[in-house]
Write a structure and sequence with these properties.
Layout lengths: L2 E7 L13 E2 L2 E2 H10 L6 E6 L2 H9 L4 E3 L7 H11 L6 E4 L9 H9 L7 E7 L3 H5 L5 E4 L5 E5 L14 H4 L3 E10 H8 L5 H6 L3 H6 L4 E5 L11 H16 L1
Parallel strand pairs: 1-4, 1-6, 4-5, 7-11
Antiparallel strand pairs: 2-3, 6-10, 7-10, 8-9, 8-10
């Protein structure tokens, strides 16, 4: 099975323009993501899909693989589809790897890849919710599963609602899962989902994966117990990442 790892790296960002090129102790963020992906054993190839010549040139300069894509893509999924089309080889699956997680665990990538079968349409990682704060946070997408471990629904609200219990006791009443933003798409399914119009549920929750569910696609989930990596969305996150690297170097 051939699997292409795609790292979407968009230059424009409301909170942190040009963040793929942000320096983390001598290496850019996109370089560190790329190096972590190279440690994954199940990716056949890795490519940075960017909309900016500066990022493209930078990736090539450190020996990485990159492709230039449109600056009009509404999501990383759409950028992954164009990146797949630009490859000279064919692939069975594409894994969408967040370009703003410089410490992504290669084991998580391999875990997701190892779950893929010819019948798999889409797959993603999930993790048990560990705190009430996490459960109630609208920044955390929660996922409800069926008996086949397929996603039934994603929500920013805590679901399911435990009717006969106080909210502070909900974690003791049932197991909640949070979504970990790593996706795998079968090559033909990737094409199909990029042609779908924005859905009602997607608009309501601002969660792209609801578009796929609303249109009848199946999302396989794989549980991971790995610690959550640091995502860099703002310059303040970059400072925290640099502090983390310094601590790691001093250990």
């Amino acid at each position: 099975m051939k699997i292409l790892g795609v790292i979407p790296a968009r230059f424009a960002s409301t909170r942190f323009p040009g963040k793929p090129l942000a320096d983390l102790l001598g290496k850019s963020m996109v370089h560190r993501v790329y190096l972590q992906c190279k440690k994954a054993k199940r990716l056949s190839e890795i490519v940075v899909a960017t909309d900016h010549q500066k990022i493209f040139d930078h990736v090539i300069s450190f020996g990485g693989n990159a492709c230039l894509t449109s600056d009009q893509h509404p999501s990383g999924t759409d950028r992954c589809w164009e990146a797949l089309q630009l490859q000279k080889s064919s692939f069975d699956f594409v894994v969408n790897i967040q370009g703003d997680e410089p410490f992504i665990d290669p084991g998580q990538i391999d875990l997701l890849c190892s779950s893929l079968e010819n019948t798999t349409e889409l797959a993603t990682l999930i993790q048990p919710v560990s705190s009430l704060e996490q459960l109630l946070s609208p920044n955390e997408a929660k996922v409800v599963l069926n008996t086949k471990k397929e996603a039934m629904y994603f929500s920013r609200s805590p679901v399911p609602f435990v009717q006969k219990s106080e909210q502070e006791n909900w974690l003791r009443e049932t197991t909640y899962y949070r979504h970990v933003g790593l996706y795998a798409y079968r090559h033909d399914i990737l094409k199909e989902i990029t042609l779908l119009p924005v859905s009602v549920l997607e608009k309501a929750e601002s969660l792209e994966q609801l578009r796929w569910l609303e249109n009848g696609f199946k999302i396989k989930t794989v549980e991971t117990d790995a610690e959550e990596g640091l995502c860099i969305d703002t310059p303040q996150d970059l400072v925290r990442a640099i502090d983390y690297l310094k601590k790691m170097k001093n250990q």
